[in-house]
Amino acid sequence: MSNEQNAEARAWLIELLAWWEGRVNTSPLQRYFNISRQSASKHLNQYLEQYPRTLEYRNDIKAYIPTAAFRLHHISGDVAEYLNWVTGIAPAPPDNKLHHHVIQHPPRHISPDIIRPLVIALRERRRVDVEYQSVSSADSEERLISPHTFVNTGLRWHVRAWCGKNKDYRDFVLSRFRGQPDLQDGLSEYTAEQDVAWNTQVTLIIQPDPRLSDRQKLVIERDYLMQNGELRIQTRAALAQYTLQDLQVNTKMLDGNPAAQQLVLANYEEVRGWLF
């Protein structure tokens, strides 16, 4: 990677953390780029020289926070960019050597004011008082949740959390939060360890649509590297429905055209209790 690309990657990470976490210091730069504290401090100062008055240092938290003058120069503002990085799905901008293109899903409006408290809650195991707009309710509702994991379903991001209202673990779509989550004091008693659906492993048995011809089935089997005519996918029970959706496996009705359906869930009765 050239010096110019190195500088861009560091500026990208500084901006990413300042915007989505509301703070940035030398520690994440040191860890991610395997550099000394002195080098990390130098890169922060270079960013400040390029964009004066956009970050200010806070002694109480030993970090820089974005000011009202902060603007996005190196990041897109799409929360997926941050979540892909922080969860390890995607690294910093790579040194691309091959032409490629990734289909971009429509961005969902998610404010950093929503993400910042959720990140703290996940890291510090705290409860959050949130305002949430569900599809089933015309009005947003106040919920007290204990989040434990960010989840990428392929089309959207949600946070898995204990819901005080429903007395159960639920999925909360990030773009449906309203206002600013209010962090609560003290540790939450509800963690990922108590989430039964999260900790239960299920096996999805995927097969070619039986209405296909033998030749068509063989094509599908080769596409998915099936063994003995089936693909076995182990997943968390809480993610089974999303896995099937990602594979475009419809468990409620068959498409009239088997070439369009292509795949079916062979062990539906075994896993139906985990589907929605």
Q: What structural class should be given to the helix and strand makeup?
A: alpha+beta
Uncertain regions: pLDDT < 50 for 5+ in a row? 94-98
| Strand neighbour order, sheet with most strands | 6-5-4-3-7
Q: Count the helices. How many?
A: 10
Q: H/E element string? A: HHHEEHHEEEEEHEHEHHEH
Straight-line N-to-C gap: 46 Å
Number of strands: 10
Largest sheet: 5 strands, antiparallel
Q: How much strand content do the residues show?
A: 15-25%
How is the topology of this model organized?
Blueprint (H helix, E strand, L loop, with lengths): L2 H18 L5 H8 L3 H14 L4 E4 L4 E4 L12 H8 L25 H13 L1 E7 L8 E12 L4 E7 L4 E6 L3 E11 L8 H4 L1 E8 L5 H10 L7 E6 L3 H7 L11 H4 L1 E3 L2 H4 L5
Antiparallel strand pairs: 1-2, 3-4, 3-7, 4-5, 5-6, 8-9, 8-10
Helix pairs in contact: 2-3
